[in-house]
Design brief:
Strand 9 and strand 10 form a beta hairpin. The longest helix has 23 residues, at 245-267. Helix 8 (233-243) packs across helix 9 (245-267) and helix 9 (245-267) runs parallel beside helix 11. 49% of the residues lie in helices and 22% in strands. With 436 residues, the protein is α/β, with parallel strands linked by helices. It folds into 2 domains: 18-173, Alpha-Beta Plaits (2-Layer Sandwich), CATH 3.30.70; 197-435, TIM Barrel, CATH 3.20.20.450. Strands 8-9-11-12-13-14-15-16 form an 8-stranded mixed β-barrel, surrounded by 4 helices. It has a 5-stranded mixed sheet with strand order 2-3-1-6-7, with helices on both faces. It has a two-stranded antiparallel ribbon with strand order 4-5. Bound molecules: ligand C2E and calcium ion (2 copies). One calcium ion binds next to loops.
């Protein structure tokens, strides 16, 4: 009796342990098991590698084929991973469609990721074959690394780094990458206070007419001065676009510009049209137009005094809302410039349909101007099209007189670049307008 009771107790305990550590769908270990097992392996000497493997669009698979098939698929993926790794390695299912792999000893990362990809990207359940896409994050552990959660986090970060890059099956966590993440979080920690502390300042870069040689426009460019250091917009704008702080910053820049225009109108008879950069995130904010109109009224600005710059990439995105908002902006009387033209993928058809006034030719095309004109240049083709569509053209990043002459010859309207002026502080910009 006693022995039987003991046996039952052991069975019950094992059963509970199983529930706590086994994933019932795949029969593999679960998240808890992964933590325990990797912790043990981290004690062993030698090289260790973590791979986080994620099935892309698993939700769609579930929707299309049902949950039962979805579960079967997870089981099959687990089996294939097991076949691809060594017996001493670990694989567990960490969450829905995410598997954690832990490899002990020397690993050829390129080889193992390829093998996993090959085995899983075409997989069968019974005798039906399915095509899948997987993505992976890889972290090669530091020698003395003992913190399991931190190594998982690093592999997840490596996985996040390839989000949206459909042709890249895996990302590896590197030293450089770690520095980038640290810098990003530094910037994120400083950004909220930066507006309050007035650390952002607006500079203006003149745009000069090729016909009159006079200033006809200017682009407002934001600068961030933190203690005596300048942080480049090339660094912080992409971060703000990712975390949506750009909505706040764009609005702030726009308000400062309106304030400056109001001041200039009191001093000058005529002022150049000022263009302001607007990110896609701002455009998609549902209060965008309402907020921008309100600010405009506050400073007695009319929309004709301002141009909104939207990158070609955001303008041609398939997002139906973007097209709608562009039309609304136009109806309100603002002009619209397409920024970085030539780096996105707009078609002629789109150019004709979009409610735009100005095309800004990206610096990379200006850099490639073939002065000797041995080859036909992209710019000549653009000029031909823009004249037909009645668009104003601005050449960006023009640095020398040869480029200016070339652009004049092809009737580009405005030139913006160091050849005339770098972006100027507001006070210097006003002086510049007075003098020219
Ligand atoms: P962008 O809109 O293409 O701005 C032009 C960039 O080229 C500016 O860099 C400008 O200083 C630089 N540039 C102008 N002329 C020359 C030249 O002759 N040679 C060279 N090498 N560069 C020239 P900046 O100010 O560093 O801005 C970088 C990017 O940051 C901008 O590219 C824009 O995408 C973004 N940005 C700047 N201010 C704002 C803003 O207020 N809101 C948003 N959403 N983005 C902004
Ligand atoms: Ca711009
Ligand atoms: Ca540009």
């Amino acid at each position: 009796m006693n022995r039987r009771y003991k046996r039952l107790r052991v069975e019950k305990r094992n059963r509970l342990l199983e529930l706590a550590y086994i994933d019932p769908i795949t029969g593999l270990g679960n998240y808890n098991a992964y933590l325990e097992k990797t912790k043990e392996k981290l004690e062993i000497d030698g090289k260790k590698t973590v791979i986080i493997l994620d099935i892309d669009k698993f939700k769609s698979f579930n929707k299309k084929y049902g949950h039962m098939k979805g579960n079967e698929l997870l089981k099959r993926v687990g089996e294939e991973i097991k076949h691809a790794i060594r017996k001493t390695d670990i694989v567990c299912r960490l969450a829905n469609d995410v598997f954690g792999i832990f490899l002990v000893g020397e690993v050829d990362v390129e080889g193992i990721t390829k093998r996993l990809n090959r085995k899983i990207s075409r997989i069968h359940i019974g005798d039906i074959w399915y095509n899948l896409r997987i993505s992976m994050g890889v972290y090669i552990c530091d020698k003395n690394e003992k913190d399991v959660q931190s190594i998982i986090d690093k592999a997840i970060m490596a996985h996040d780094s390839i989000k949206g890059k459909y042709h890249v099956p895996y990302g590896v966590f590197t030293e450089e990458f770690e520095q980038k993440i640290i810098r990003e979080s530094e910037i994120e920690n400083m950004m909220e206070d930066a507006i309050e502390n007035k650390e952002f300042e607006i500079y203006y870069q003149p745009q000069i007419s090729t016909k009159t040689e006079k200033i006809e426009g200017a682009e407002a460019l934001v600068r961030w001065k933190k203690n005596e250091n300048m942080i480049s917009p090339g660094e912080f704008i992409p971060i703000f676009e990712k975390n949506y702080f750009i909505i706040k910053l764009d609005e702030y820049v726009y308000e400062m510009v309106c304030e400056n225009i109001q001041e200039m109108k009191k001093e000058f008879k005529e002022i150049p049209k000022i263009s302001v950069n607007i990110s896609k995130e701002s455009l998609l904010d549902n209060k965008f137009l309402e907020k921008y109109e309100k600010i405009m009224r506050k400073y007695d600005i009319i929309p004709e005094e301002i141009e909104l710059e939207i990158t070609e990439r955001s303008a041609v995105s398939n997002d139906i809302d973007i097209q709608k908002i562009l039309n609304k902006i136009k109806q309100k009387g603002f002009s619209i410039a397409i920024d970085d033209f030539g780096t996105g993928y707009s078609s002629l058809n789109m150019l004709e349909m979009m409610p735009i006034d100005t095309l800004k030719i990206d610096k990379s095309f200006i850099d490639r101007v073939d002065i000797k004109e041995e080859k036909i240049n992209f710019i000549e083709i653009i000029m031909f099209i823009t004249k037909k569509l009645n668009l104003r053209t601005v050449a960006e990043g023009v640095e020398n007189i040869e480029q200016v002459n070339y652009l004049k010859k092809w009737n580009c309207d405005l030139i913006q670049g160091y050849v005339y002026q770098k972006p100027l502080k507001f006070e210097e910009f006003k002086k510049y307008i007075k003098e020219i």
